[in-house]
Amino acid sequence: MLALPTTVAVVLVALFLAYGMRRGIWFERTITTILVLPISLGVVFLSEGILGFYGHNGWLNQLLLAVGLIQNPLELTHNSIGVIFSLFMQNFPFCFLMLLGYISGIDPSLESSARMLGAGPWTIFRRVMFPLIAPGLIIAFALVFVMSFAVFPSAVMVGQPAGSTRTISIAAYQQAFEQYDMSYASAIAVIMGLCQLAALVVIVLVRRRMTIATTMGVGKR
Fold first, then answer.
1. What is the DSSP string of 100-112?
2. Is residue 106 a contact partner of residue 19, using CB atoms and an 8 Å limit?
3. HSE-up of 202 (CA within 13 Å, CB side)?
């Protein structure tokens, strides 16, 4: 299962960075541009870059071997690690931008009021900010999960399509274009769609149980 760990990693890292940048930081535009740069690369180019840098004979392994930190090359591609890393780079920019816009729009006076009442940073996040962020976080989780669930090019290029990273989309492709069994391929595709739909229904139901308050203010100051 590649979608769930990838989604959790993407959402947690995006939340951490977006929360830290919610009121603006030095060189914010430059940092944001660097973080969302993978959007412009495309899946194939990004996968090739991962192979060239993190592959068995990639730059990273060659550097670590040269300085003596490792004795054998690290296996970072053609396995689940490579696919998860590729999916992370593909989906992180969308999740980060979504959460940054959502969090930045929360009225800063709510934090100021909690701080004046003696609440610390962790208490403010846990008792004030997180309940307000949660609805947006759920939507970001749903979108990243759906995009990761149907992974195909990354699983083929930087994964092991006949082994640990044989996803349901690869199974559908093989049945359709290798076995020429369109009925079987269609059934697999329907099952994949139903799984995605079921996950979305659960996530939407969870979001509906949350209290969504009107908290938008002036945003960044």
1. HHHHHTB-HHHHH
2. no
3. 10
Phi first, then psi: what are they for 54, rounded to 5°? -105, 0
When the pLDDT of each residue in the chain is averaged and rounded to a whole number, the result is: 85
**Distance, CA of 56 to CA of 76 (rounded, Å):** 7
Q: What confidence tens digit (pLDDT) does each residue in 161-192 have?
A: 877 788 888 888 888 888 888 999 999 989 98
- With tokens 């760990």, the residue in question is 5
What are the helix (H) ranges across the chain?
A: 3-20, 28-36, 43-54, 59-66, 80-104, 108-116, 121-123, 130-149, 153-157, 168-177, 182-208
Task: Please tell me whether the overall predicted TM-score, pTM, comes out greater than 0.90 for this model.
Answer: no
Nearest to 128 by CA among 106, 150, 146, 148: 106
The token pair at 118 is: 């003696």
Residue pointed to by tokens 């930190």: 69
pLDDT in tens, 36-51: 888 888 788 888 888 8
As a whole number of Å, the end-to-end CA separation of the chain is: 42
CA 58, CA 93: separation in Å to the nearest integer?
25
Residue type, 130: F
pLDDT digits (tens, 9 = 90+) for 80-114: 888 998 999 999 998 999 999 889 888 888 888 88
Residue 218 CB neighbour total at 10 angstroms: 9
How many whole angstroms separate alpha carbon 76 and alpha carbon 52?
A: 11
Q: Which residues contact 184 (CB under 8 A, 6 or more apart)?
A: 175
